Automatic annotation (TrEMBL):
It comes from Streptomyces telluris. SUPFAM superfamilies: Periplasmic binding protein-like II. InterPro entries: Bact_solute-bd_prot1, Chitin_NgcE, SBP, TAT_signal. It is found in: Cell envelope. This is N-acetylglucosamine/diacetylchitobiose ABC transporter substrate-binding protein. Pfam families: SBP_bac_8 (PF13416). GO terms for cellular component: cell envelope. Residues 44-56 have a biased composition (Basic and acidic residues). NCBIfam families: chitin_NgcE (TIGR03851). Keywords: Signal, Transport.
Amino acid sequence: MGSSTGSTGEFGRRDLIRRAAALGLIAVPSMGVLSACASGDGDSDNKVDKGTKSEKNPLAVNESAPLDVVIFDGGFGQQYAKDAEAEYKAAFPKAKVQHAATQEIQTQLQPRFNGGTPPDLIDNSGAKQMDMGTLVGKKQLTDLNALLDAPSIDDPSKKVRDTLRPGVVEMGQFDGQETWVLFYAYTVYGVWYSKTNLEKLDAQYPETWDEMLAVCEKAKKKGIAGWTYPGKHPYYLPFSLYPFIAKIGGKEVIDRIDNLEPNAWKDPAVKAAFEAYYELYKKGYILQGTPGLTHIEAQTAWNQGKALFIPNGSWVENESKKTTPADFKMAVGAPSSLDAKRDKMPFGTIWASGGEPFIVPKNAKNPQGGMELLRIMLGKKSSQNFIKQVSSLTSLNGGTEGLSLPPGLSSSQEVLAKAGQNVINPRIGDWYTALQKEKIGVAALGEMMAGRMTPDETVAKIQKFSDEARADDSIKKYRHK
């Protein structure tokens, strides 16, 4: 997802036309058309010459070539990237680094892809991110295995790939062994809450769904909502809903959903999870007005103690810091057990994965420079700088030594440790971005949680969306190996 997205946590407002289109009220082009960038797989003929490969320059960067970088300016901001660019500039003093930041990634960059002049490195995140499955399918990206096989900044005896957290490389591999995306942040998704606000209710984080409902009822009597979420961007709901489904029915349910398999959404675990979330609406545990809130507005209401729980990713600590009380004690919880005896996975099962997807376009003028900047970013110095600035882990395995972690990030570390091997990583948002956000999120889950659609109707509608995507030959298909 990116912060994203998805990684999804820094989404801009949608206008009425876009929302109407998502709900099927007006005719729009197919997802493949909406999310596609330039077609074709020809190399650009205006690439800079490679430099001289050496121990200090293992990717053969042209030391005087300009570097063009575009960063998504969302929950993580852009300063961390500017700091890494300063390191690049120190290594290559003759190189001019052009830095740009935007929340409109696809809007700003699709014309450049179409014209064959994309940047050298892109942080492809946010609501307006380019569809990565489409970019891969249309052969618009550079294989990053050269970066992954290069020596790491900190220890030249280790390859970059050997310094990354488990699963990060695989996330960037859509099919085959090529690695098309490097997910820089490492995001923990789940149910976020304030320990302080639970303590005020003499409550603890609910490990069962019955306990969740009891806590929400207790809060309701005090005039506090149990839950809120970004109603204008309801694709945040899967951040806690997908691991809930996996916990109930097993990881294989999520894999079948990712694979667009027939009737995958009709699995009993999906219906059970939807019915549980719908119960939050039916019992009045959702903050009034939530369907009209942006992510920032929902987070602010949560910070103000108007609601106890919010589905989110670990970027939320940085993104909401301006409105977070000093004594908030931000924390993340794994999905509650629906039925501890029957659930296929134990309490503590969590969704954690790479976030903030970085790509090097195939037609970039200076792809070696783009990969070199990523190599710098994956060093301990840049990683720790990122952690300190934005309260999020990076994909570098470790890197927190000697750092004093804020409450939310410390909690993320704790739930990861407790989860052990029970970590899931849904891929539908990476492989089929438009399906995940506009169809499953806005047109289905958002409608259900607003009370305009029942769980059964929601299951049927999402299955229809999935079937349509599977049958659409313009959409490249991916599967779990």
